[in-house]
Amino acid sequence: MQKRPRYGLYAIVALSVVISFFPIVWLILTSFKNTAGIYAWPPQYWPDPFTFENYVSIFTNSPELLRYILNSFIVGVGATAVTLLLGGMAAYALSRLGLRFAGVLMVAILAVSMFPPVSLLPSLFQNFLNFGLLNTYTGLVLAHAGLFLPFTVWMLASYFATLPVEIEEAARMDGMGFLRIFLTIVLPLSWPGFVATGLIVFIFSWNEFPLALVLMTQNAMRTAPVGISLYPGEYAFPWETISTATVLAIIPVLVITAIFQKQIVGGLTAGAGK
Questions:
Q1: pTM score, two decimals?
Q2: What is the domain range of residue 130?
Q3: Is 268 exposed, middle or buried (0-12, 13-18, 19+ CB in 10 A)?
Q4: d(CA 214, CA 208)
Q5: Are residue 139 and residue 243 in the same domain, yes or no?
Q6: pLDDT score for 9
């Protein structure tokens, strides 16, 4: 029996791609337009003239943008490292040690992740102020680690469930302890899962806004999303500056995603056929 072309499915996929990528493409094209082209009516889809003036201008007039991007990178790397270290060991313990209330703990961890970040701001701000953690990388790294730890535990616990237990049992019979088994056996086997989870956590941390806005009040310590959001003035909305700064801010994430693309796909699809 001859299969019919699935035109409807192709149309849905094409529509999904357009909806997903159109804002990004429009943002990139806007960064190459002059002010007249941005506010032109009917809309100017292709920059005319095509100019790099916005990029020259933002490095000349807004050199703090590079500082914002550096801050986001430092906080993202730190939060990812802390989250993977603590979340990895917690997920392994919950999935392998046969704890009596492991299921209850997993549900509790999931319940904690449902609290909106804004609800945490009053207590976080007061405690961070008392401990001198405001406007510090350490403070925001800890805040982001706590925020994304439940997601990490769930992701890695699901990944550990796909690994064979026989290797760990053999190592345990040879006298290896929990920490040594985790570091020398489980961690290498789980590398794709750690890479995929780590990259997602890094992107979450890079894009996080409320905590970074409240906990980083000094201009030199602001992250990229917060710094870019402050570009609009009271009577002006510089779209050319905002679009250009946003393009520059997403480049590191795009580069990292492209480098670790295979690991991400492998980590997210591991165990699908088991």
A1: 0.84
A2: 62-269
A3: middle
A4: 11
A5: yes
A6: 84
Please count the structural domains in the chain: 2
**Is 233 a residue whose pLDDT tops 80?**
no
Average pLDDT over residues 221-248: 84
93 with 220, same domain? yes
Q: Calculate mean pLDDT across residues 177-201.
A: 85
Tokens (6 digits) for 5: 């072309």
pLDDT in tens, 28-42: 998 898 888 888 888
The tokens 């409320």 sit on which residue?
A: 210
Q: Are residues 256 and 232 in the same domain?
A: yes
Q: Under a CB-based contact definition with an 8 Å cutoff, are residues 112 and 153 in contact?
A: no
**Token pair listed for 197:** 């989870």
Angle at 117 between CA 116 and CA 118, to 5 degrees: 90
Q: How far, in whole angstroms, is CA 265 from its chain's centroid?
A: 16
User: What is the rounded distance in angstroms from the CA atom of residue 37 to the CA atom of residue 113?
Assistant: 43
